[in-house]
Automatic annotation (TrEMBL):
Name of protein: ATP-binding cassette domain-containing protein
Pfam families: ABC_tran
Domain (ABC transporter) ranges: 5-235
Keyword terms of this UniProt record: ATP-binding, Nucleotide-binding, Transport
Highest taxon in the source lineage: Bacteria
One GO MF term: ATP hydrolysis activity
PROSITE patterns: ABC_TRANSPORTER_2 (PS50893)
Claim: Nucleotide-binding is one of the keywords in the record: yes
Family: Belongs to the ABC transporter superfamily.
SUPFAM superfamilies linked to this entry: P-loop containing nucleoside triphosphate hydrolases
InterPro entries tied to this protein: AAA+_ATPase (IPR003593), ABC_transporter-like_ATP-bd (IPR003439), P-loop_NTPase (IPR027417)
Species of the source: Gracilibacillus thailandensis
Length: 310
């Protein structure tokens, strides 16, 4: 299977500081991915690395199988629309003129009808002749979305696109993004601090902290947390366990494991009984929100959420 985007062992250092650490992930076409994490987790840096702004210090980023830094191509960049940091527009041009300028600048052939259609899609038809400087924050965000899809890209990278919007605006953006995937088969990677908001649209969630993806999950409601006492194990076996899909090892010592999964106990045991000898297993439900807080909790040392044997 060719993935739209593949991140392979991506590390990014900026000014001698490690900002992204060993990031590995494959993004499929036609899905919405939610990137979650606190301030400074590395979400924007991850989006910028896919956009071609931050070259990995080591590792590779592939777009449709092409390495975007080793085989750079304008054609790849044309396939990516983005809102990263505040979208810049010309204050003294109207919304319609701003989009026309964007199209010309990117050598996109267009007719006024297309601009009208874009403005209509983001709910700005009535404001099309307003100067950009005279629009509200919500309107500016919508203009960002209009511009990001103007060149009909395969991939949208959106950094907190609902920042500053009221609840109605947030709902509208949500609906627009779902429509973009359903009607135009785009892939969207959207970052946010807000689990509940992103949970409403994302097919898959990526939790980040300290430059690492600490958990990925498709399940959008409750997960099972397994606390497992094991007969003394070794690093190799635990690595094998971590490679199983649908299982996240969130804590491990040679005799104890914590695993998060959507699987029920018999299914999980079917996988891990082949690898480890279990003494005792306990299961409890955990909401994604509690899991997120648990992983980010300052009371837990970073080593606790590392995947290696301590
Ligand atoms: N150009 C840069 N120069 C130096 N440090 C940077 C630069 N860009 C990002 N960083 C640092 O990288 C880390 C990750 O920042 P990033 O913006 O990716 O986090 P984030 O998860 O998007 O945070 P937020 O939710 O606050 O937007 C932070 O510690 C930040 O200070």
């Amino acid at each position: 299977m060719t993935y739209l985007i593949e991140l392979k062992d991506v590390n990014i250092d900026i000014k001698k500081k490690q900002i992204l650490k060993e990031v590995n992930f494959k993004f499929e076409k036609g899905k919405i991915y939610g990137l979650l994490g606190p301030n400074g987790a590395g979400k924007t840096t991850l989006l910028k690395s896919i956009l071609g702004v931050f070259k990995p210090t080591s590792g590779d980023i592939l777009f449709n199988g092409h390495n975007i830094y080793r085989q750079p191509s304008m054609n790849i960049m044309k396939e990516i629309g983005s809102i990263i940091e505040f979208p810049g527009f010309y204050a003294n041009l109207t919304l319609s003129e701003n989009l026309a300028l964007h199209m010309s600048y990117h050598r996109i052939k267009y007719r006024q009808e297309q601009i009208d259609k874009l403005l209509n899609f983001v709910g700005l038809s009535k404001q099309k002749d307003k100067l950009f400087s005279q629009t509200s924050l919500g309107m500016k965000q919508r203009m960002g979305i209009a511009r990001s899809i103007a060149n009909d890209p395969q991939l949208l990278l959106l950094d907190e696109p609902t920042n500053g919007l009221d609840p109605q605006g947030i709902k509208q953006v949500r609906e627009m993004l779902i429509q973009e995937v359903e009607l135009n088969d785009r892939t969207i990677i959207v970052s946010s601090h807000l689990l509940n908001e992103i949970n409403l649209i994302a097919d898959q969630l990526l939790f980040m902290n300290n430059g690492e993806i600490i958990l990925t999950t498709e399940n959008k409601e409750e997960m099972n947390l397994f606390e497992i006492q094991i007969v003394q194990s070794d690093e190799e076996k635990l690595e094998e366990l971590q490679r199983l899909s649908g299982i996240e090892v969130i804590k491990s010592t040679p005799t104890y494991l914590e695993i998060i999964t959507a699987m029920e106990e018999p299914e999980l045991l079917g996988y891990i009984n082949n690898i480890l000898q279990i003494r005792e297993i306990k299961c409890s439900n955990i909401s994604l929100e509690d899991l997120y807080l648990y992983l980010l909790s300052e009371s837990r040392s970073e080593e606790d959420v590392q995947y290696a044997i301590s």
